[in-house]
Specification:
The protein contains six helices and no strands. By secondary structure, it is mainly α.
Length: 165
């Protein structure tokens, strides 16, 4: 008689397999490279056009007007440095925490803007993809990226997969 999966010797429950994949250093490297690459890709154009980025950020109507320019200058640096640290594996847990914090702030800002009915550009990929309208889909996309950021935050790995920092 044949036994089902649960009856086989050495068979792991599905949750254990998922946990093993999530903890694997290659999974960590992929998550770090993906998130870090996205933040470098989106942050560099903002570094080159801080005034335009500040204008887009002002559209959210969250920051005091006197802080908008400071935000437009500093936020791209946080994105690029955080992304670069993730990519090269320097301080992976700290850089993942910074990226997760940025994503949580982006989600909160998007929620507030959408709840208030503001029809604004998200400012995410400007000027690379033009001015994308802020939608619930973009907030969900950021939530997915936040979930991905949890992997290097919980199971950090350095530049070389398998080498713990």
């Amino acid at each position: 008689m044949s036994q089902g999966c649960a009856g086989r010797a050495g068979a792991r429950p599905p949750l254990a397999r998922v946990s093993r994949v999530l903890r694997h250093p290659v999974t960590g490297a992929v998550c770090r490279l993906l998130l870090g690459g996205i933040f470098i890709y989106t942050g560099l154009p903002k570094l080159l056009h801080p005034a335009e980025f500040a204008r887009l950020a002002a559209g959210y109507r969250i920051l005091h007007p006197e802080l908008v320019n400071l935000f437009g200058i500093t936020m791209p640096w946080v994105e690029v440095v955080g992304g670069a640290c993730l990519v090269i594996g320097v301080l992976p847990r700290s850089s993942a925490l910074v990226i997760a914090g940025l994503l949580a702030a982006f989600i909160g800002a998007a929620f507030l803007a959408l709840a208030r009915g503001l029809e604004i550009s998200c400012g995410c990929f400007f000027p690379l993809l033009g001015e994308s309208r802020l939608t619930w889909k973009l907030a969900i996309r950021d939530a997915i990226m936040l979930a991905i950021a949890l992997q290097p935050l919980i199971w950090p790995s350095g530049f070389i997969p398998g080498r713990r920092r």
